[in-house]
Amino acid sequence: MSSGEPWTIANVHRWTLSRETISLAYVVVAELKSSASERSC
């Protein structure tokens, strides 16, 4: 990552600590897991 990018540590922490982002991450992980299991079968 270059220092000129807007994605600073503070920004990442803000996103990570928000409940909406956490719940969204859970949904994405669940989707990835289900699609992965479908491929292996």
TrEMBL record:
<protein>
    <submittedName>
        <fullName>Predicted protein</fullName>
    </submittedName>
</protein>
